UniProtKB/TrEMBL annotation, chain A:
InterPro entries: Glutathione-S-Trfase_C-like, Glutathione-S-Trfase_C_sf, Glutathione_S-Trfase_N, GST_Zeta, GST_Zeta_C, Thioredoxin-like_sf. Pathway: Amino-acid degradation; L-phenylalanine degradation; acetoacetate and fumarate from L-phenylalanine: step 5/6. It comes from Catagonus wagneri. Residues 4-136 form the GST N-terminal domain. Coiled coil: none annotated. The gene is GSTZ1. Its cofactor is glutathione. This is maleylacetoacetate isomerase.
UniProtKB/TrEMBL annotation, chain B:
Gene3D superfamilies: 1.20.1050.10, Glutaredoxin (3.40.30.10). Its EC number is 2.5.1.18, 5.2.1.2. This is Maleylacetoacetate isomerase. Keywords: Cytoplasm, Isomerase, Phenylalanine catabolism, Transferase, Tyrosine catabolism. It comes from Catagonus wagneri. Belongs to the GST superfamily. Zeta family. The gene is GSTZ1. Residues 4-87 form the GST N-terminal domain.
Length: 189, 216
């Protein structure tokens, strides 16, 4: 292990880990990965992304304009506080196996209803305007969770469109859960 | 209503609203408050008007400088960038990361799991146990983190966004009768912050919508 390289503790399937892997890929930051089979979680991933932004500022993950930055953070928090924690592994374990699918679907649908509405006034090609931002790093992994829990995405055309175009970008592909060192064979791309 | 003053949509008891009230008080920002009662009328956050303002149907929301921002930490970061003094985030990027990490731990890792709508979903007979477990679990982690970051405050000796998250979460812990004796650092910091004016003037017991029986 090279001295000085950042070390990321990551779980292939964790949407929080995936957000950070995308950021590291976009900023071309070389790092070591230590895979963990989880999960005592992850709401602290946005702090990591903000630190990367402040110390490795290019390419940008937050716009320069404070109002646009507020929109990026608002959307990121909507997902990272308002949706993901409510359907994470430990909560799902607590609601009981027979309730898990319904619970996850309700949480995601409720959050996506709100997000779809917010995006009407902020989105261009991406969540906020046309540049990839921290908000997009939160959106794509959350859509993957939605797919995993069989949430019907047809009420969310903006979310779907943005997700689709982001998944075509290399940073989102190289960081994808299906391509990680700890991805099980049956889930590999 | 004076043109140009920011407008905060707040509920006295909402810990997320309290975070923003503290920030506005610390930064000496004059504002109007519109109170949203989360219980009355089936929950005023569900009204069409409020939903148009914040599609998540939650408080707080802040109308400021021609935009509307929801999510308390996004609001606080905007205030920090546009009204930078006094600071709510340190200058050093590593300390800023600690402040944000602690804020996220509370704002993503604890509070959402014990908010009103989740508690309504787990059912009345389970609510207290659920809230206690969520808070205790989060405070276990937080107490440990604070060992390496805390001085008089969560990160060093200056009040930061992390402290704005901590105090309201301790109030929630008290509300759900969580035993705080395993968390001496959390308790110490909470106590010294509550002595500061910004934390007092913004306190749930002193708001325009505080019911008489809960008034200070």
């Amino acid at each position: 292990m090279q001295a000085g390289k950042p070390i990321l503790y990551s779980y292939f399937r964790s949407s929080c880990s995936w957000r950070v892997r995308i950021a590291l890929a976009l900023k071309n930051i070389d790092y070591e990965m230590i895979t963990i089979n989880l999960i005592k979680d992850g709401g602290q991933q946005l702090a990591i992304i903000e630190y990367l932004e402040e110390t490795r500022p290019t390419p940008r993950l937050l716009p320069q304009d404070p109002k646009k930055r507020a929109h990026v953070r608002m959307i990121s928090d909507l997902i990272a506080s308002g949706i993901q924690p409510l359907q994470n592994l430990s909560v799902l374990n607590q609601v009981g196996q027979e309730n898990q699918l319904t619970w996850a679907q309700q949480v995601i649908a409720s959050g996506f209803n709100a997000l779809e509405q917010v995006l009407q006034s902020t989105a261009g090609k991406c969540c906020v305007g046309d540049e990839v931002s921290m908000a997009d790093l939160c959106l794509v992994p959350q859509v993957a969770n939605a797919d995993r829990y069989k949430v019907d995405l047809s009420p969310y055309p903006t979310i779907s469109r943005i997700n689709k175009s982001l998944l075509a970008l290399e940073a989102f592909q190289v960081s994808h859960p299906s391509r990680q060192p700890d991805t099980p064979p049956e889930l590999r791309a």
